[in-house]
Amino acid sequence: MSYPGREPLTFVVEEVERKTRLPPGGRTRLLIGGQAVIEGVMMRSPQWTSTAVRRPDGAIRALTEPHASLLLHFRWLRVPVVRGCVALYESLTIGIKALLLSASLASGAQASLTGRQVAATVSVGVGVALGLFFVLPAAVIRSLDVYFPSVFASNLVEGALRVLILLGYLVGIGRLPDVARVFAYHGAEHKAVNAYEAGAPLQAEAARGFSRFHVRCGTSFLLIVMIIAIVVFSFLGRPPLALRLVSRIALLPLVAGLSYELIRAAARVPWLRPVVVPGLWLQRLTTQEPDERQLEVAVRALREVLERDDASPSSGPSPEALS
């Protein structure tokens, strides 16, 4: 199994720190992130995002715009753990904005999203995720605490229940036809980035032969968050239910930041690679083999950001370079 590719949670920080040199000519390989959206793919380079969507008439519509990461402008945010929280926040906001935009493009509508609309959608999404994957397991296990011999055993079972809920959720939504198509676009996004990382031509037929899995996909990140949470929450003892729920939510940024650092370390330290293997297994639920038309959309989004970054100054985003 191959391990190429980059994932939205890690590429921004790494692009600030370094660029990987490619022979010949000293050209640089940008670190690209991405996300499947409705009938399309969002790709993100250090300075640009592009959302490409297959419209009802069969044409591909791509909307490309610059973005300015906080990590590019505030060095103090790049410290370990904190940078993971910032990258996660930016990935959520950009990803949900791209998802809402794709819904408009796929339906042929022209809707402009306000910052308030994006913030509201992010808040609802985060609230549902917290309730389903953290509050519910904590409440259930707290009611059964007397049956566990130790704090670690209690948290281990809580973590196992959290993972089971995640698996059930993914299996359930994967049976929906519309979600299955999003999962196929997820596979297309991975294949396109893997092809670029390998130096292959940016064409759908070339991308088809690459893996639909990413070592640092967001799916892998979510699973590692749940594993790290078992360790972190074990230090909290057995507080009352209300305090237990509040502590779970309050410490989630710390858990996310630690998970981010573990993923980055696994990419550099070979003996840590087994840590991300369960995430690759989990991607069998969140990705499907794409067809040629879906690969064309992913490649189009990738080309858009690469062309913009090639034409942009390397010092940072260009706010006036709108498209």
Strand fraction band? 5-15%
Query: What is the tally of helical segments?
Result: 12
N-end to C-end Cα span: 38 Å
Strand order of the largest sheet: 3-4-5-6
Tell me the count of domains. 1
Q: Catalogue the unreliable spans.
A: 1-26, 314-323
Q: Quick check: average pLDDT? A: 81
Strands, total number: 6
Helix content: 55-70%
Could you spell the SSE succession in H and E letters?
Answer: HEEEEEEHHHHHHHHHHH
Biggest sheet: strands, sense, closure? 4 strands, antiparallel
Structural class: alpha+beta
Shape: globular
Tell me which oligomeric state these chains represent.
single chain
What is the radius of gyration computed over CA atoms, rounded to a whole number of angstroms? 20 Å
Give structural notes.
The protein is α+β, with helices and mostly antiparallel strands. The protein has one domain (11-311). The chain contains 12 helices and 6 strands. Helix 3 (82-107) packs across helix 4 (115-143).
